[in-house]
Amino acid sequence: MSFVLEICAASVASCIAAQEGGAQRIELCDNLLEGGTTPSYATIAIAREKVKIDLYPIIRPRGGDFLYSDLEFEVMKKDVQLCKELGCNGVVIGILTADGRVDKHRCKELVDLAWPMGVTFHRAFDMTDNPFEALEAIIEIGCERILTSGARNTAVEGASLLKDLVERANDRIAIMAGSGVRANNIAELIKTTGVTEFHTSAKAYEESGMIYRNPNVSMGGIPGVPEYGISQTQRQEVLLIRERGEKALQEIKQ
What we know:
Oligomer: single chain
Strand order of the largest sheet: 3-2-1-8-7-6-5-4
Number of helices: 8
Protein name: PF03932 family protein CutC
Keywords: Cytoplasm
Number of strands: 10
Main location: cytoplasm
Shape: globular
Subcellular location: Cytoplasm
Family: Belongs to the CutC family.
């Protein structure tokens, strides 16, 4: 048992902060407000140049549901190939059928295409109709881990299912808890779920350097999101989550 912290980073600067804070792995995304979409080629390429820890770009062509057209699937396959060419350690995927099951055929095609990179199945898992059936399907197609909030909005709310998933997985696949993971709840999540891999953005909004700000125009307009705020992973928050997580796991071992 060892504590693993993955940072969901939406920029190269956030990747660097994740590494400096001691994270072991990065899920590289764009558009976090939509749950994460595939970042640009340049973002992946420069992130790979700047950080040495494991880099896993998300393969998701758009926000919304996880039911993709043939054209979208072609884009996903191309993105997997590009990630391999750029030297990424893995990719993050998730495709469902219309009835809420894991699309084993398409997901297996992506896993095979990604090899020898690793593959994480993302929170599309939380949108399946039967999490235990989905668990077995994802193990069957060859993913390394499942990112899940326990089929609730946050990992704290889904703690009971997370615990059950860890027990059902029985070391056949890693269960990684994500959504709402913070320094102030990481210890309790470890103790109540048995999960040892965690996923968080550890981000805050940094003030823009813009001096002139047109009061008549809003480019975002999303409640709770500052118009002149830049979302970025915070090195100190990563460090704090890692330290508290490692301490909690060590106490359990003793």
